[in-house]
Inverse folding.
């Protein structure tokens, strides 16, 4: 009996041990890498780096860059984790909630970065980067500032514009891309009359459709029309209602591919695939479009020579400059506990040499180091770069400029417009309401 | 030892079964007549009771610890978060009481997502399960290729939800295989924007869900049918019952427990429907195929409204919980009678 008791006690003990080891997961890790402030020598340091360049050439380029940095800094290990864009957003969330962000991680700046700053998850690097941040495109650098302090560094800045199939335009007898919104509506009708689907849009992802609405609002009211974060009731104002009316006019022409309400941007039957296989004549998308089109075409070549680019047309009577652009890019935020070496690594990433290497890939990453523009040889990307250079204002994508909640509310409201279930006033008003609540 | 354990206590004395004086009453789990010598004395009986408890605790605790950590704690955490306006980052410092619940119950998209779940549930009960039952009945007959057919119908269930969703997304895209098949068979009029039309998408989802799960219910029914003794049907036949009568009055009642479990699993499955919908439609277009769970993920994760998402999760949990308890209490009462009453003894 005594022996049995002992055995029972042992079992209980084991069970308690199991329970204890289950519960004790959260208190490791955080202590090990908090060596901030140390100078870049001596002790072994690991830089945890999360990026989203999950396809070549970007994937290999970042690997090379990390290897080069490690070679120059024998005490440093760069621990790379790569995610696809959407997967990254899901994966980073628990790390942020645990208060343990990676040392360097993908960031688009704007509202999301601002939330991370509020939560104390990212590091103010203003002083560290001060000697070299001036070498970068200041519009791009500004996206990573919150209240004047620098929390991240960009390596890419692009703009949304029209990608079009020059063959299909020619087939419909259109010689010049449209310069005004009215011309665009006319061209849409001309393409339809020629039996060509004018526009490809992936409403399953919502944001590709939001670009149209946001760009129209930018043309109607200029960048000043976009309310400052915290004052979002301004989304109920005229430029936004008018944008809805103009977009509704387009939607009523039924210019989109079949099944566009369920189509995604990147995937089988999606917006990029439709465009890449000649299923539609144009689409509104960012500088990454050629790369995605290639990945979504049977021969891996996209539209090849037939692909052209033009900026979003002017809206007559609008207050916005026709050169103003919608855009955004990629960069890295610095985790609150990141070691000093992480910032040295950022400096290395931001050198002209690496920017040129990015440019030479012509993959849609438009480097932000001043002077590296010449490294890009693809004519369409050169057009985008020119438009970027001409733009006085680059308005950040709305779902990144504002907090995720409002960004999603904008996407949802515009989706209703595409589905014919809301009026332009409803759209503007529901966004303003979402901001208020 | 404590006096209460003394063998002369009234409880032991009033035991109707005759015992030699000094013998302790049997401990509950020990059958009369096989009382081991070790528990004959009063102190031994207490030790046995304690040992028994300890053994129970020891064997339960690993499972219990996991259950508490992975099921109970998150439920209470979720309930706790649901009282806050919280974006998932930083401290929980904006307590809003029941505001999140009020918002959810006033949001037409959330209410629609509940409605969608009940539509899928209703259609499953009315169409999918009878279809599976009919198939099971057919495949229970002696026929050539029976095993192969069973395997074929069961096959979709083996696929993961995500693969099913991706495959069907491809089949259902405009001018995809489904549309082409309809056109080739002269049914052009039936071609729809299966996933892109808000009026159609929910029914498309239902068809895919049914395609995936009818095989599972069919196998359940087949197993149930095979437990019905052949003699009963033969006896019914001898008594002059028609096949329909045999089915109605012999087979169906004997299949009752299986059907009740199958209905239970189907309803719970509908309430928890997620992967398939999330991958196939993401809840869209315009929320027309949201289930409560896709809605929760959309609001919670995609929008970083973790407080609100938690409130939605709690509501979804309560709906499932109340239903499951009610169903067990009233419908499954006879089937689970042994399992539940044993605990009281």
């Amino acid at each position: 009996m005594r022996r049995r008791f002992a055995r029972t006690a042992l079992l209980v003990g084991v069970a308690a041990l199991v329970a204890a080891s289950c519960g004790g997961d959260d208190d490791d890790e955080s202590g090990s890498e908090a060596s901030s402030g140390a100078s870049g020598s001596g002790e072994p340091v690991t830089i945890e780096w999360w990026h989203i360049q999950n396809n070549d050439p970007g994937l290999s380029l970042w690997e090379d860059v990390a290897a080069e940095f490690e070679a120059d800094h024998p005490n440093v290990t760069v621990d790379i984790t790569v995610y696809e864009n959407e997967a990254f957003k899901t994966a980073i969330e628990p790390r942020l909630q645990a208060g343990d962000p990676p040392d360097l991680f993908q960031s688009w700046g704007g509202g999301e970065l601002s939330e991370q700053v509020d939560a104390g998850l990212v590091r103010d690097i203003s002083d560290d980067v001060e000697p070299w941040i001036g070498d970068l495109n200041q519009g791009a650098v500004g996206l990573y500032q919150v209240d004047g302090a620098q929390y991240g560094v960009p390596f890419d800045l692009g703009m949304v514009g029209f990608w079009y199939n020059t063959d299909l335009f020619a087939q419909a007898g259109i010689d010049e891309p449209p310069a005004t919104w009215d011309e665009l509506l006319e061209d849409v009708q001309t393409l339809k009359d020629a039996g060509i689907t004018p526009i490809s849009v992936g409403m399953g992802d919502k944001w590709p459709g939001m670009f149209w609405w946001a760009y129209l609002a930018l043309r109607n009211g200029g960048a000043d029309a976009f309310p400052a974060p915290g004052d979002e009731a301004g989304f109920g104002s005229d430029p936004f209602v008018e944008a809805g009316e103009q977009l509704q006019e387009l939607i009523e022409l039924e210019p989109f591919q079949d099944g566009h309400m369920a189509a995604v941007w990147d995937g089988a039957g999606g917006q990029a695939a439709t465009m890449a296989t000649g299923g539609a004549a144009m689409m509104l998308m960012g500088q990454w479009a050629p790369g995605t089109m290639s990945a979504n075409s049977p021969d891996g070549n996209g539209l090849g020579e037939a692909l052209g680019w033009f900026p979003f047309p002017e809206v007559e009577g609008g207050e916005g400059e026709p050169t103003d652009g919608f855009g955004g890019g990629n960069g890295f935020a610095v985790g609150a506990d990141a070691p000093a070496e992480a910032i040295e690594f950022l400096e290395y990433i931001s050198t002209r040499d690496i920017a040129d290497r990015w440019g030479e890939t012509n993959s849609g990453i438009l480097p932000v180091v001043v002077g590296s523009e010449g490294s890009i040889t693809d004519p369409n990307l050169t057009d985008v770069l020119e438009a970027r250079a001409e733009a006085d204002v680059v308005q950040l994508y709305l779902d990144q400029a504002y907090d995720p909640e409002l960004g999603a509310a904008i996407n949802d409201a515009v989706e209703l417009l595409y589905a014919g279930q809301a009026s332009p006033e409803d759209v503007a008003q529901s966004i303003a309401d979402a901001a208020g609540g | 030892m404590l006096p209460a354990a003394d063998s002369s206590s009234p409880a032991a004395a009033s035991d109707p079964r005759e015992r030699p004086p000094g013998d302790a009453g049997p401990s509950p789990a020990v059958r009369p007549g096989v009382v081991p010598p070790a528990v004959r004395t009063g102190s031994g009986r207490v030790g046995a009771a304690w040992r028994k408890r300890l053994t129970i605790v020891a064997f339960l605790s690993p499972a219990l610890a996991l259950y508490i950590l992975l099921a109970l704690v998150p439920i209470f955490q979720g309930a706790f978060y649901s009282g806050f306006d919280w974006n998932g980052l930083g401290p929980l410092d904006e307590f809003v009481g029941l505001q999140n619940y009020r918002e959810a119950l006033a949001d037409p998209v959330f209410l629609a997502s509940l409605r969608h779940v009940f539509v899928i549930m209703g259609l499953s009960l009315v169409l999918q399960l009878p279809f599976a039952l009919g198939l099971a009945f057919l495949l229970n007959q002696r026929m050539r290729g029976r095993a192969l057919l069973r395997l074929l119908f069961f096959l979709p269930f083996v696929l993961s939800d995500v693969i099913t969703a991706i495959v069907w997304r491809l089949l259902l895209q405009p001018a995809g295989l489904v549309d082409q098949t309809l056109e080739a068979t002269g049914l052009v009029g039936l071609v729809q924007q299966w996933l892109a039309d808000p009026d159609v998408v929910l029914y498309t989802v239902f068809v895919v869900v049914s395609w995936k799960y009818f095989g599972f219910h069919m196998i359940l029914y087949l197993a149930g049918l095979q437990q019905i003794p052949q003699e009963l049907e033969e006896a019914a036949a001898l008594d002059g019952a028609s096949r329909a009568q045999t089915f109605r009055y012999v087979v169906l009642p004997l299949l009752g427990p299986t059907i009740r479990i199958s209905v239970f699993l189907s309803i719970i499955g509908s309430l928890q429907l997620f992967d398939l919908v999330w991958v196939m439609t993401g809840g869209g277009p315009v929320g027309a195929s949201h289930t409560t769970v896709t809605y929760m993920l959309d609001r919670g994760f995609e929008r970083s409204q973790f407080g609100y998402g938690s409130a939605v999760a709690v509501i979804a949990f309560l709906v499932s919980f109340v239903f499951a308890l009610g169903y067990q209490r009233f419908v499954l009462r006879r089937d689970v009678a042994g399992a539940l009453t044993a605990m009281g003894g």
Q: What stands out?
A: The longest helix of chain B spans residues 42-81.
